[in-house]
Structure formats: structure tokens, C-alpha cells
Amino acid sequence: MSAGKHFVSDPKDLVRTSLSGLVAANPHLALDEKEKVTYVKDLALLRTKQVTLFCGGGSGHEPAHAGFVGHGMLTAAVSGHVFASPSSSQVLSCLRRVYSEEHGTLVVIKNYTGDVLNFGRAVERFKSESVNQGKPLPKVAMVVVDDDVGVVNPNDDAEGGVGRRGLAGTVLVNKFAGARAATGGSLDQVKAVAEYVISNTFTIGCALNAASVPGQGLPRVLGDDEIEIGMGIHNEPGFETKKPQPADILIPSLVDHIVSSAPFKKAHPGRTGRVILMVNNLGATSNLELGLVTKLAVEAARDRGLEPVRIYSGTFMTGLAMPGVSISLL
């Protein structure tokens, strides 16, 4: 469980120093420390060859997003403070750096108010700059990932005012869009692939406790006899708190929640077919337990007429050191 203890010197400088460590361990990466932008080192060459794309948001979700910068995926990632969107100026600096005049640029974000506002504002500022300089309108597109189906009870038709948040499905968007860009797709084609993945990816999370935030501690604590279904990656409340269940009961119920959700049924009325299954460690689940969760999720999908043609199991998008998992179906 999260205990409120951290390896940290200065919480205010944790993001910058962490990114420096990431870059030190990965020679293909470079870092703009001031703006907290991580990008591929051979960026100048890459811009001439393909559509570039970047993602970003608050830190605390590592390896997302800077950990997915590289050939075939993201060209760059821009990081805000822990659980806080990067500023529009940070995003603008990233866009100026990675923009490909010949091929264009795709911006991928998660559906959170700060990200939508700051990234959207940066894109509009970038377009205005070009127009004011007498240049053609730049080829820039933005997509918003909203794969969360855990914001409301599946028995409710209305989704309420929260909206579907962006979760681990964002990594699948980056992978597919990045692959299409690397194989020579146009901006319209890369965007279409991203939109297809967004429209067909559905995620539910389950946490045993909230995560401690460096410098702030635990925002709330679940009891020893409580787990939460739908807890967000920033400790946002889920839709249900319940008693712990054996994994062979809990995990199939999470898969049931996905296939019974209104967004899934709307996209796939038949509720059967080929899927990609992603089992994601939210940060503090042991690999031993994750293996069990993966086995049960695969079996539950097959029992419900779904055929997992590719299975990802690991740590892709965390909520700091949150003890929990999320399951995504594409």
C-alpha cells in the first residue's frame, strides 16, 4: 500500500530531475529542461521524413508519456508538475520544436480540463503565429483520448458531468498513430488511425488504495476492508467502493463492466470479436499479482466471446505508486 514515503530531494524539482535520469539512461533521447520537453535526438532528420506527434500531461504516470518517446511512437512528450497539466507555453515550445512543415504534426492528449484548455490554446497560438508571419496555416491536428468507462455505474445511461477520462488506452493511441506515421502515413491518415483507436478502446480501473503524492502525502485512505472501482489516475473517486473480493471474482467483473458499459455496447452492439487486451499496473502492484490478473482477464474475455489477438501486460500508465490495475479492451 502507499505509505506516504518517497525517494525525493525537492518535490518542486522532482519532474525535471526524473526526466534528466530518463534521458541519461536512454541515449536516443534529449531534454529541454526548462520546458520539460523530452524528444528524439535525431529530431531534425525525423521531421523531414514523417508526421511528428507528441503527447503530454501531468507527471506521475510514468512511463507515460516521456517513456514512449522513440521511433515508431512519440516524437516528443511535454510534462507538467505531478498531476498538473503543462502550461500552454510549455506545449507551444514543444510544438515549435517538433512541427514538420512538410508532413504536419499530431497532438495527443487525455480528456482532462487542464490538458484540453492548455494544449488547445497552444495549438491555436501556433496557428496564429504562422498566419501573422504570412505563412500558410500549419498542418496541426489534436485528438483527445477518453477511454475510461469507470466514471459511472454501468446501469446508468447518463455519464454525468465528469466525462470519460483518458487512461491507459492513451498508450495504444500513441502506438498505433506512431506506427502509421513511421510507415509514411499522411497527417489525415495518422489522425484517422488515432481516432479509430480512441473510439474503440475502453478501460476500467480498480485500486486497493489511493496513491501518495510527493510533498503532499495521501489525499484519502481506503480501509482495509475497501477497494474502489473506477478510481482515476489522479486519485479521483470511482463509482463504487466495495469489500475486497477474490481475484477470480473481481477481475471477470471488471471485464463485465467494460462489455456492459454504454460506450462499448454503442460501438460494438454484437459485443464479440477480436480485441487487444491491455492489463496495466497502476504503479504498486507486484508482478506476481499482475500475472494472475492477466490470466484471469484473458479467460474472462474469451468466456464472453472476445478473442485477444494481442495481450499487453505491464506498467504503461500509472497513478504514481497506486496499488491497483486497469484493464483495457481495443
UniProtKB/TrEMBL annotation:
Q: Which domain of life is it from?
A: Eukaryota
Please provide the record's keywords in A-Z order.
Kinase, Transferase
Q: What is this protein called?
A: Dihydroxyacetone kinase 2
| Lineage, uppermost ranks | Eukaryota, Fungi, Fungi incertae sedis, Zoopagomycota, Kickxellomycotina
